[in-house]
Amino acid sequence: MLAVSGAVLLIWNRMQVARQIEETDTSVAQHGKLVQAGVNKFISDYRLTLISNAAPAIPGFPVALSPTLEQLQANPAENPYIPLGYNLANQLGMTYTVSLGLLPAGCTPGVSCTDVTGIIASTLPLIDSATGFADGSRVGSIANKIGLDAASSKVGAGTVLTGPAGTWAEVNPSGNVPGILVMRAGYGSGAYNGLEHLLPRDGSRAMSGRLRLGGNPIVDVSTLEASSHISTLTGNISSNSGSITTQSGNITTTTGKVSANYLMTSNQAPLSTCPDPNAIATAADGTVLVCRSGLWRVHTGPIADKGAPCSQPGALATTSGNGEAVLCRGSTYISLSNAIGKFVEIGRQAVMDGSVVQHPQCDAGGIPTFRFSMVQTAVDVSSAPPKQVSSLTASGGPGAAWTVSYKLIDDVGTQTSANVYNLQAVMYLECKYP
Questions:
Q1: Could you tell me how far CA 149 lies from the centroid of its own chain?
Q2: Radius of gyration in angstroms for the set of CA atoms belonging to the chain, rounded to a whole number
Q3: Using CB atoms within 10 A as the burial measure, which of 40, 165, 377, 413 is most buried?
Q4: How far apart, in Å, are the Cα atoms of 40 and each of 37, 46, 81?
Q5: Structural contact between residues 425 and 405, judged by C-beta atoms closer than 8 angstroms
Q6: DSSP assignments along 180-192, one per residue
Q7: Are the beta carbons of 28 and 142 closer than 8 angstroms?
Q8: Which residues pair with 258 in a beta bridge?
Q9: How far lies 410's CA from each of 352, 372, 382, 415, 418, in Å?
Q10: How far out from the chain centre does Cα 393 lie?
């Protein structure tokens, strides 16, 4: 009876020891996963810096390709890669060193490097306290608990690190030392590849699909560049004090609006050819031009052709073909040049025979001219033959002036100055335009 009880107790003790080993090894594996996650997050945050610089400068990490666990636990201060207070040694007293490398092997930073890989290795092998030798079997069991990214060096094959079921192998950085536990990090590791769905803050990876913000705003943007176009279906694209610029694409809104000052920097010559109907440009003097019928034309208002109906008498428009000005008269657009007289009165003055009158100042294209209105006439019957014909005209000179001739003429052609009779006329000074 005592022998049976002793055997049962021995079995129970072995079970308790096995359970304790299992629990300890599970905790060691979880510890290793947490360290691996911190290293992967560090690589993800600084990937672009690491592959772009031969001596990358990262605050808190003097040797960026060999970050220590202490540095990973101290940085960044607000959310360190390894949580503050977490024991950096696992339950078996093992600590780790981190060694990162650039891919492809032998690449030049800033030229040909594309990614970062790494090995997290235990600084010392796991030793069996009973034998004093490396416990390759137990460290292999821990590697299996960590998963596909873990490996260990076996007794008798200490120079090689072997992953679970021989899925991958790596040269042991410690040399021919069995009992070493390692984890992969960075490119090639399953845990790092799980971060591929995240968009890195350093811009080291491009989006492979649409960036969906769920109706949330984008704030604190310095420069927003688009190689194609920026569009809004129902909202606005606005600028409070800056500029909205596109080098080769479009700014398009379907039902919204583009607000703020719209600066058109495309200088074109009026009446030069243009390819895009209704395109807008400016002339060198700032005049707004619109592309109509293949030519850049000055935009002066609404577009309407002669004979088209209109509803606002007096309104002006331009034709779509040659840009001729048209006027709404009644209910139809007519040519503005036909609606406006070609003679424009500049002034008027009373004149007598011999008066000298200066030419009016005409705008470009205008020709000075005049016309008369007789306000006084006379018939002199005191002499024979009587003077009963009035002659009122003007001739050029002196200089830019006219000299008025106002005469009374009898039947035989004898002329008498109208000044004798104190006669005056009104001279209208005009400019004639084409």
A1: 42
A2: 50
A3: 40
A4: 5, 10, 9
A5: no
A6: -EEEEEETT-HHH
A7: yes
A8: 237
A9: 19, 22, 11, 7, 13
A10: 72
To 10 degrees, the CA torsion angle through 355, 361, 365, 369?
-20
Distances (CA, A) of 10 to 2, 13, 268, 410: 12, 5, 100, 164
What is the predicted pLDDT for the residue at 304? 86
Joined together, the tokens standing for residue 61 give: 């990490």
Q: Is 284 left (phi over 0), alpha (psi -120 to 50) or beta?
A: alpha
Question: Torsions phi, psi of 244, nearest 5?
Answer: -110, 115
Alpha-carbon distances of 95 from 38, 152, 180, 377, rounded to whole Å: 14, 15, 11, 128
* Closest among 133, 246, 148, 240 to 191, alpha carbons compared: 148
Residue whose entry in the numeric block shows the structure tokens 């979880």? 30
Phi, psi of 142 (to 5 degrees): -65, -40
User: What sections of 305-433 are H helices per DSSP?
Assistant: 336-339
Q: Rounded CA gap, 107 and 45, in Å? A: 20
CA 256 to each of CA 213, 243, 302: distance values in angstroms, whole numbers, following the listed order:
20, 18, 22
Compute the distance between CA of residue 154 and CA of residue 141 in angstroms, rounded to an integer.
11
How many CB atoms neighbour CB 358 within 10 A?
A: 13
Determine the pLDDT at residue 159. Answer: 93
Tell me how far CA of residue 332 lies from CA of 30, 304, 320, in angstroms.
87, 10, 16
Query: Rounded CA gap, 362 and 19, in Å?
Result: 113
Say if residues 177 and 124 touch (Cβ distance below 8 Å).
no
Give the Cα separation of 328 and 298 in Å (integer). Answer: 20
The tokens describing 214, both together, are 């769920």
CB distance 374 to 425 below 8 Å: yes
Burial 152-170 (b: 16+ CB within 10 A, else e): bbbeeebeebbbbeeebee
Q: What is the pLDDT of residues 50-71, one digit of tens each?
A: 999 999 999 999 999 999 999 9
Mapped onto helix, strand or coil, the DSSP state of residue 402 is strand
* The residue to which tokens 């002066």 are assigned: 300
In contact, 415 and 360? CB cutoff 8 Å? no
Which has the higher per-residue pLDDT, 199 or 35? 35
198 residue type, one letter? L
Q: Token pair of 55, please?
A: 């001596």
